[in-house]
Amino acid sequence: MKKITVIALTILFSSCNAQKIRTMGKFDIAAFNKNKNHLNRYIDTLDNGTIIEQRESANFYEEIVKLKDSYFEKYRRYYKNGNLQLEGEYLNNDFQKGIWKEYNKKGELLEETDYDKGFEYTWEDLLEYLQKRKVDIKDTDNTTIRNENGNWRFSYIEGIYIYDIIIDGKTGKIIQDAKNEFEEGS
């Protein structure tokens, strides 16, 4: 029994140390260069419906992974040497979710930022509320969702109306629920 406990503790501590040293991914520059188009982009759709888009700019490479059934996209930015610079998840460019990590050019972790911190009324709570209101979250032309100043703020168009709602990120209390008529040309 002691032997099993010692082995289990050894594995546990080894995995903890491995997480601290964590090797992060590199951007495959050669494969990207082979597959990119004239706009310095490459888009691949996997069998499971996941879309991977890669782009090159003057200063970095980007990779955006869109899972078929997820509202969020995984974002990674890489230095020109291929090492990871920044990674995290976001919703349609409206807000960043969870923990984002930033690395130096050598691949060493510089900073972690928790964008969910302070939100006791979570994304999942907000999602449930949005579904009750029948808001089409994926309709990015008519729906925006942001987390700002510790609150959730979303707006959407339904018929001739624009709804603008603010919910307290800690308590879930509705601070504003405005309904305005959509004006021609807006």
Protein described:
There is one protein chain. By secondary structure, the chain is an alpha+beta fold. The chain is 20% helix and 41% strand. The chain has two domains: 92 residues, no CATH class; 59 residues. The chain has three helices and eleven strands, in the order H-H-E-E-E-E-E-E-E-H-E-E-E-E. The termini are far apart. The N terminus is likely disordered. This is Toxin-antitoxin system YwqK family antitoxin.
What descriptive keywords fit this protein?
single chain, 186 residues, alpha+beta, 2 domains, four-stranded antiparallel β-sheet, 11 strands, 20% helix, disordered N terminus
Task: Summarize the entry for a quick read.
With 186 residues, the protein is an alpha+beta fold.
Q: What are the low-pLDDT stretches, counting only 5+ consecutive residues below 50?
A: 1-23
Per DSSP E runs of 2 or more residues, the count of β-strands stands at: 11
Structural class: alpha+beta
Largest sheet composition: 7 strands, antiparallel
Percentage of residues assigned to helices: 10-25%
- Give, in order, the helices and strands: HHEEEEEEEHEEEE
Strand content: 35-45%
Radius of gyration (CA) equals: 21 Å
Protein name: Toxin-antitoxin system YwqK family antitoxin
